[in-house]
Amino acid sequence: MDSTPTISQVSLSAIVLAGGQSTRMGRDKALIKISGVPLLRRVCEAALHCTNQIYVVTAWSDRYRAVVPPHCHLIVDIQQGPLVGFAQGLTYIQTDWVLLLACDLPRLRGETLQSWTAELETISPDTIALLPHSQKGWEPLCGFYRRQCLSELQQFIDQGGRSFQSWLANQQVQELRLENREILFNCNTPQDLEDFSRDNR
Ligand SMILES: Nc1nc2c(ncn2[C@@H]2O[C@H](COP(=O)(O)OP(=O)(O)OP(=O)(O)O)[C@@H](O)[C@H]2O)c(=O)[nH]1
Ligand SMILES: [Mg+2]
């Protein structure tokens, strides 16, 4: 059997959101080192398995410039939450699809992200996103969006919308079925970090 990984032919960029306050963690999550590598860098490196066009949206570009891999673009954020940060990032995107990632996903694996991209080729034109789903709803910060969703998203934001769940409730979204949901684990609190470190000892 051919074991060559399937690489999608669709055009793809990535947006990494790194403009949160890390209130629950009590220190900047993006800079927490896991196996010596800051979380934000790990997330960007995972995204590099799918694309070399990576846009990090953050209010702290000076702080992160030395942290992100070379050639990643840093987009200055206006700090109105992740949905607005995503819309800001989207204005820079020139590819048909974009992979959106949070910066606090320590279990992200580049190979897994790459395997997901194959599904993008099969998605109907009126479907605007391919996202994992959980009991809480869509998992908006670890999945794919069409660039064309920007105009509708901007309208939603202009009307005061700030919630991914409310926006996606009125959009056509396809579920990205996951073999292993661990990849979605996001590290929000010191306890999350401790649990993660213990599992990886
Ligand atoms: N660019 C941008 N990213 C954001 C913003 N708010 C949250 N994010 C990012 O969105 C992702 C999910 O956010 P949360 O896990 O809620 O992170 P947070 O806001 O830093 O954490 P808390 O303050 O503890 O809620 C993380 O990657 C954050 O960096 C924002 O206003 N702008
Ligand atoms: Mg989080």
What can you see in these coordinates?
This protein is α/β, with parallel strands linked by helices and 201 residues long. The chain has one domain: Spore Coat Polysaccharide Biosynthesis Protein SpsA, Chain A (Alpha-Beta Complex). Helices cover 27% and strands 20% of the residues. It is built from 7 helices and 11 strands. A 7-stranded mixed β-sheet has the order 5-4-1-6-10-7-11, with helices on both faces. It has a two-stranded antiparallel ribbon with strand order 2-3. Strands 8-9 form a two-stranded antiparallel ribbon. The longest helix has 10 residues. It is globular. Bound molecules: guanosine-5'-triphosphate (GTP) and magnesium ion. The site of guanosine-5'-triphosphate (GTP) has 23 residues, from strand 4 and helix 3.
How would you summarize the topology of this molecule?
Layout (H helix, E strand, L loop, with lengths): L11 E6 L15 E2 L2 E2 H9 L6 E5 L2 H4 L8 E4 L5 H9 L6 E6 L7 H8 L11 E3 L1 E2 L2 E2 L3 E5 L3 H9 L5 H6 L3 E3 L14 H10 L2
Parallel strand pairs: 1-4, 1-6, 4-5, 7-11
Antiparallel strand pairs: 2-3, 6-10, 7-10, 8-9
The structure holds guanosine-5'-triphosphate and magnesium ion.
GO cellular component, one term: cytoplasm
Pfam family, one: NTP_transf_3
EC number: 2.7.7.77
Find the count of extended strands (DSSP E, 2+ residues): 11
Low-confidence stretches: none
| CATH class assignment | Alpha Beta
* Shape annotation: globular
Order of helices and strands: EEEHEHEHEHEEEEHHEH
Strand content: 15-25%
